[in-house]
Amino acid sequence: MLVYGDAERLENARDLGAEITQKLLGLQGMPPGIARHAALVSAFIRAGELAQGLLDIAWKMDEADDWSADALASSTLLIGLAGMVGRSWAGCELQCGEVPVEQLNQLSRSVSIRTKQGEGYAFYALFPEGYLLAAQRSGLGPQTVVLGIRSIGTGLAAMVAAGLGADSMFTLRPHGHPYHRQITVAPGLAARILADPQAHFAIVDEGPGLSGSSFGSFADWLEAAGITPEQIHFFPSHTGDLGPQAESRHRERWARAQRHSVGFDSVVLNRTGFMGGLAGWVKTLIGPLQEPLRDISGGGWRQLGAADAANWPPVDTGLEKRKLLAVSATGTWLVKWAGLGRMADDKLRRGHQLVEAGWTPEIAGMCHGFLVQRWAEGSSLRQAQPERGWLLEQVGEYLSFRARAFPADAAGASLGELYEMARYNIGVVLGEDASKRVSMALGAPEALADRVQPAHTDNRLHWWEWLVTPQGRLLKTDALDHDSAHDLVGCQDIAWDLAGAAVELELTAAERTSLAQKVAAAAGRPADLELLDAMELCYLGFQIGLWSFAAGSNGGADAEAARAMVQRYAKLAAACLSGHSPPTPNQFAGAR
């Protein structure tokens, strides 16, 4: 199934360098605490993206990784910043003269680079501080050769090097099939990496994922050069095994390998001393907690709504972000992972706009990757069964607000990519003939491409994503970041959300048209029903893929519910391809 995406961002290295410098200089006027530490980590992450983008230019030109002035400056810059992060994490005062101006100036030149957002930083509550702690506890010394797997491994390797006291590191770009990665190292760089054949080697990255082939490609290269397995150490983000697509030889090596990892609980939840861990961070926003933080991740939040599990909405436990519940004298609050760095800043800004417009609950603030938002009491649409006209009026106003308030600089997946995703995913469940009919129904993406006006769309309009409060207000939950999720959709024309509303709220043909006209009028444009038709078929294809993955990763009743979702979307796709009208409202299907 086609579901996941790996978004890149086109940036100017000079502008990015100026942004990093400004972030670092801004630290000097901030008091010690979690806000200043988070700002420092944000600068460090952006510096890792700057280094990654520049090193990837050279890699693409030479078709191999080599040693260069940029590689040296990147190593010095990032290890220096990692040391600052380590001292801040330990509670030490930052010194005003620590901004590494020389290396930043060297890397900050007017050239376009493609930066990649670290998945762990964005989606999986990965903290770079955990790699510093893992290095400090590993027993390895400063002579260890540190190898980072680009992209996110660029910065993580610097954290390991700082933790070991090493003064240099190297990063390499794996390439090839995702399940069979390999690396290409120029002779000059290979000689530097392998200068001491008796050294220990630290391979650093997030993951491993489905195959672990990136880790495996580095170890393969080292062993081919004569390095023994006993000299190789892995620094992953978790202690689990390789995924189901791993080669048997990589799986066998991983099982006996020396691995060093410090997880989320040790880094964040159970941290004591300076800054006091997540509970201490949250305290700065909402006051002292009256009880320990309660983890409601992986669908645990459903227990706070309907007591009967039969009425719970389906979840994808593999993609759910970390969520906790905090209770203080100021009330009950949701503490949800929002990401580190630039992404968190963007979400917080949009979140405050949604609060001011009355669509989401109050936001207390952000604390080092976690958004703290008041817990909203209310009933889901399936429980409340609000009057139909009122609901459609409210949904129309919400989507109109998003279309006006959140224009995006660029779209996520192109229409061509969405069309290919729909053709493939629908074909998997309905057969080759259905795939051909999808292609015929959608036509050429060029016909509609210039009509797409990207916005920060909601991308999640299912019945359980809405609450009707006891005061009779409609609130949208989880409204900040599905346009920047770990999938290929991204920011789309508001027609994507109109298609989502049509499918998830089971709109009749007349309701669908009326909603599209209302939102179009608010956005100052004519209703584009042709684009809406195309987006609806693509939306169904995406949901088929999304819930197919959930059926494979979930267990028990949640897997069964995910399979039911796939069947529902497949049935709707078949109806669209047959030219049938949408079904009449049926109390928001999809629950088990």
Describe it for me?
The structure is a single chain. This protein has 22 helices and 16 strands. It has 592 residues and is of the alpha/beta class. Strand 11 and strand 12 (370-374) form a beta hairpin. Helix 15 packs antiparallel against helix 19, helix 16 packs across helix 21 (529-553) and helix 21 (529-553) packs antiparallel against helix 22. The model has no long low-confidence stretch (mean pLDDT 93).
Write the layout of secondary structure elements.
Blueprint: E1 8-12, H1 13-26, H2 34-62, H3 69-89, H4 101-107, E2 112-116, H5 119-123, H6 129-137, E3 145-149, H7 153-164, E4 170-172, H8 187-193, E5 201-204, H9 213-224, E6 232-235, H10 248-256, E7 258-259, H11 264-269, H12 277-286, E8 294-295, E9 323-328, E10 331-337, H13 342-356, E11 363-367, E12 370-374, H14 381-384, H15 388-405, H16 415-430, H17 432-442, H18 446-449, E13 454-455, E14 466-468, E15 474-476, E16 492-493, H19 494-504, H20 509-523, H21 529-553, H22 556-578
Helix pairs in contact: 1-2, 1-4, 2-3, 3-4, 3-7, 6-7, 15-19, 15-20, 16-17, 16-21, 19-20, 19-21, 21-22
